[in-house]
Amino acid sequence: MDFNSSSNSSRNTPRTYKSRKQPPKKKQKTQVYLSLSSKPHHKTCSACGMSYDTLSPDDRATHHKFHARALSGVDISLPLPSSTCVAKVVLKNNVHATIHKLGSRDLPRSTRTALDAALRICNAELSAPDEGIADFFSRSQPAVYVCITPSTSSLSSSSSSSSATITGLALVERISSGLFMSCSSGRILSSSSSSSSSPPPTPVLGISRIYTAHSSRGLGIARALLDAICASAIYGLVLPRDKVAFSQPSDSGCRLAAAWAGEVMTDRELAVDRGVDVDSLVCTGKEKKIRVYIEKS
Amino acid sequence: MLEGKLEQASLFKKLVDAAKELVQDCNFDCSETGIALEAMDTSHVSLISLELNADGFSEYRCDRNITLGLNLTSLTKILRCGNNEDMLTLEAQEKPDSLIIRFENTQQDRMSEYALKLMDIDQEHLGIPETEYAATVTMPSTEFQRICRDMYAISESITIECTKAGVKFSCEGDIGNGSVTLKPSASADKPEHATKIELSEPVSLTLSTKYLLNFCKATGLSDTVTLKMADENPVLVEYPLSSGHLRFYLAPKLDD
């Protein structure tokens, strides 16, 4: 008796309703809002910087998701393999973190999605082109470094498996030339103004993006990422810091680069940068320059 | 100082229960004329306006205007600590940081007192424009609740069409459609069972069922409900109180 199969097949058949004629297409109606408030309903969130319409449920939901990710980082559902771990660090406040170097190969889909989400948040904050992780992997010897910390966010969407969050992200590529930039003016220093007799060492690593989630700032994640990059970017070699250059640093990026690998500007460079004579120069002797490079998109 | 005594806690409980469906945090404005609340829900689709006049309290005193910023979920938790028949007293100082809620049961000689912390809520005054309504329908509140509840299962929108012949509630959903028509009726012995229609021109409005069902949480406060409608204007759903009113405004759904 084929009792089971018959009951299954009837269950799987999509249910259809009898109708003799096609019903006329319903006119779409839109919910309108009460406009009694004099306050604008477009709001820019001061914490995550997203502008949204406070009246639209879709906008509010999108903001809620973005806000949680921008502030606390992006949750990863699968733990990253230990083979990708390049450093274990203890940050300020006794926060334990691991730094992983990820190449384009063998990335599980969920990790790729999380990386993509983290990169898009980073791009939004830096006003960078909205590239995904796949676009970045088409560059010259690319690598992605992520800092993973235990999840502390109550907003995390994870149910049970995930307890880790991407709180730091750095995109690294190989480069062959670099320039010096003045931290105070943001101007590129021309090579002719450089007074040193020997040419500056050419950088080999370019930091395309470096980003820390808002709630994890001040813990030293970015510096830990940069140290891990120097130690592991080229197999068997610890790169000196002057081999690393940054692409279009933001204000905070500039401060990070100056503190991590800034070099004091010479009087001549400073005079050229300020457009004054060397003799009339007033300086603290702490004006710094950093290495930058021009990113090929 | 504010001191307001209600003979039965159930009235205030029901009012807060009805309001908390729409707003979480809101300001209660206390003046010598009574206590008022006016707030829009977060999506700015509906508005609640509550007025509890001073003569509705058995004792009422408010020397100066006081604004009480309350979280309604927290207020509900405290109100649950008292029985419906208890005497309820609301008390607040001039610049209060908390609202004192007192329950007294004279039969059992039991008195309980709770303090609810207040919040600073940035809420602007909403000027509700005067509207001339083309149709006013007064009907039993339980009937309105039943229609909303039944139609909520079928569709997310209800269309209310009001003509001289009667008022028709209809809905159309994925599983089918339905309608309820009420004709004007007069019930001499039970006027609260009557349906009254006052009309200057026929009106048809499409409204969100979810919000209407939220308004129906106030059904226990009044035997009748009044719907005031004008084309392309927010509907006014009013539950009359013995001294004061509870009004809800809901923005309609319009054609694209």
Automatic annotation (TrEMBL), chain A:
Pfam families for the chain: Acetyltransf_13, zf-C2H2_3
Q: Keywords in UniProt for this one? A: Acyltransferase, Cell cycle, Metal-binding, Nucleus, Transferase, Zinc, Zinc-finger
Question: Has UniProt tagged this entry with the keyword Metal-binding?
Answer: yes
Its predominant location is: nucleus
Q: What is this protein called?
A: N-acetyltransferase ECO1
Transmembrane intervals: none
Q: Which organism is it from?
A: Myxozyma melibiosi
User: What protein family is recorded?
Assistant: Belongs to the acetyltransferase family. ECO subfamily.
Per the record, where are the segments of Basic residues compositional bias? 17-29
Q: Which residues form the N-acetyltransferase ESCO zinc-finger domain?
A: 31-69
Looking at the record's lineage, which domain of life comes first? Eukaryota
Annotated stretches, region: Disordered: 1-31
**Compositional bias (Low complexity) at which positions?**
1-10
Location(s) in or outside the cell: Nucleus
All copies of domain N-acetyltransferase ESCO acetyl-transferase, residue ranges: 204-263
UniProtKB/TrEMBL annotation, chain B:
Q: Which Pfam families match?
A: PCNA_C (PF02747), PCNA_N (PF00705)
Location of the Proliferating cell nuclear antigen PCNA C-terminal domain: 127-253
Question: Where is this chain's protein located in or outside the cell?
Answer: Nucleus
* Family (UniProt): Belongs to the PCNA family.
So what does this one do?
A: This protein is an auxiliary protein of DNA polymerase delta and is involved in the control of eukaryotic DNA replication by increasing the polymerase's processivity during elongation of the leading strand.
Name it: DNA sliding clamp PCNA
Q: Which InterPro entries does the annotation name?
A: DNA_clamp_sf, Pr_cel_nuc_antig, Pr_cel_nuc_antig_C, Pr_cel_nuc_antig_CS, Pr_cel_nuc_antig_N
Gene source species: Myxozyma melibiosi
The record places domain Proliferating cell nuclear antigen PCNA N-terminal at 1-124
Gene3D superfamilies membership: DNA Polymerase III, subunit A, domain 2 (3.10.150.10)
What keywords is this UniProt entry annotated with?
DNA replication, DNA-binding, Nucleus
